[in-house]
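Service request form, structural biology core

Requester: graduate student, group of Dr. S.
Request type: structure prediction, single chain
Budget code: on file
Notes: please return the result as structure tokens.

Sequence provided:
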Amino acid sequence: MTSVSLTFPIRPDQLTALRRAVEQADRQARAHGLNGCQLTRGQAEFMEWPDINGVPIGTVPCEDATVTLPLLHFQGWTVIAELEHEPEAGTTVTVLPPYVDEPVDVSPRCDACGESEGTLTSYLLRHDDGQTMQLGRTCTEPYAGFPAAVLAALWRLVRWCLAVEPYEAGTVPPGMRVDLGLVLEYAAALTTAAGYAKRGGDSPLTTADQVRALLLGSTDRDVVRQLHRHLRAAGDVSALAESVREWCRESTNDPSDYRRKLARVAQEDTADPKELGLLVSAVPIYMREAQRELRAGDRTSITATITEVSPLSSEWGQRRLIRFVDGAGCLYAWESMTKPFPKAGDQLRLTGRVVRTGARDGKVETYLSRCRVMPAAAS
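Core staff response, request fulfilled:
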């Protein structure tokens, strides 16, 4: 065997560093009359990309790279490993994959000159008959004819190939695409539980920023914990998210540039992170359009915050006008005699029948009756 090949998955943005390591090792090997190093790339595919909790949030392009490098032979001996000895840290052993089962004596020494103290980089050689020996870096050339620069370059390349990981927690690699369904579910949950936040509003983070933090991570752990509480409080929003997606897809021939962009992005199962703001904005717009399409007799369910509880005159006992607003800013009202009456600020889950539609503060206000009321899911 005159060469060894290492095959491993790699992202396209990691190729530059790999090429540099291959070229450096190749120059050193050829300059000393050895066979060169080669890099062969496989077909690009997409691999799942998880968040820091291991939940798949999207995909990134990935391919198999194969690096071929020469084996160094000397009178039946083959260099199979590099040993870096540090007095305090111990010994780091880098073994070529074909020889990983070879027993390695990690004690620092050079069998050529006998040096065995202090910091020492040595190389393990295996003979065809099964014997092994260590050579210190300064003895590899005079004893075996292997220049130290060649060995250093080759093992720098070997370490790179063995250590590279396509997945790096907390990073957003180029070419990453996030799961479109998950984006809309997070956006629907945050809009439902905490209200849609846009730039210039009271919230320091827009809803798009919040979705980005959930998907791609944030340095502020308190913020992320709060966002996960909102997700729990919203409950199951998968039906809302799917309705938003279908609404986006229906806009292919819409005269609005905004709706056409939504339709284009929503046709795919994944999206560029740059499209997060566009996708997230679709949730409150869909919710407002869905409210405007409600007709008398329709039943609807919403999670909303009580904004006003006002007494109404009645011959049949106490009655209250209860007004509330959902996360998209849609206004609702309910004339209720059901006790106990809720208080302003309560967040409730209501299911009721549409009675009529009116207008308040320039917005559509939908009146409900016969509401079934439950507390919003606890965060």
